[in-house]
Amino acid sequence: MEFVSESEAETEALGARLARVLKPGAVVAFTGDLGAGKTAFTRGLARGLGVPGRVTSPTFTIVDEHEGGRLPLFHFDLYRLSGPEELYDIGWEDYLARGGVCAVEWSEHMGQALEPDAVRVDICRGDHEGQRRITIEGVSL
Question: What is the pTM of this model?
């Protein structure tokens, strides 16, 4: 499915919409350029899951845990990882086993470690500054 977002608020709203259909253990794998809107979409996921608090990019911490919603949200930013083996070093399998939603920015850094049933979200810049083209695969909205 392809969507066109005209603003950051619309991108967040689409994330909230996706959150309503996610099940425990879901992996949402993001691709898109730097500044495309992956974190904005994840803020929407958090809102849709009922997770309180502020969601920012975990670029330096690699993963942020957000509890208190319908499901916990584990927000990964793999930009600084050099390969999938580092993902296992930080406990990837443990996060999967906790039954939350794993939102993974820069999922292309996971290589073959990406779950085959992951929901894939690609975010590209559109025709003007605020517009984004968002493709979602692996789930129906």
Answer: 0.91
